[in-house]
Write the structure tokens for this entry.
Amino acid sequence: MHISEKEVEIRYAETDQMGVVYHANYIIWLELGRTKLIEDVGFTYAEMESQGFLSPVTDISIQYKASLRYGQKAIVRTWVEEHGKMRTTYGYEILHEDGTIAAKATSEHVVVKKDSFRPVSLSRIYPEWHAKYEEIKKDPNGVRS
């Protein structure tokens, strides 16, 4: 299983009046992590879009564990949790610099045609991308490599 890491400097604008990162900003960080994973394995989401396809979020789940604050750095760890014919689920951990888990998350995505929003199989339009995800996805027994 391949795990990408993306460091994020927490900006003042990302915090609330208590100085804690506002919960919606974690969703933006998930996108940063997903984009980094895709690039790490040799592809780009921008290229997919230029070919007339999108990959919208169909489900997202975040569990907040320990607050992050302005001035700290967060590390977003991202991997392919599950990958099938029509859906990809990404797994995430957002960590403090010391490795403490700040949040855990998953996001589920499908690929659709940009003009019609009709679902398409990643294996049909990008067989190499599909094969790479099959290679790097999490072991079904939950074992991390």
Summary: The helical segments are 25-40, 45-50, 122-125, 127-136. Strands lie at 4-9, 53-54, 57-64, 73-83, 88-96, 101-109, 111-113, 119-120. Residues 8 and 74 are 5 Å apart (CA to CA). The chain has one domain: 4-135.
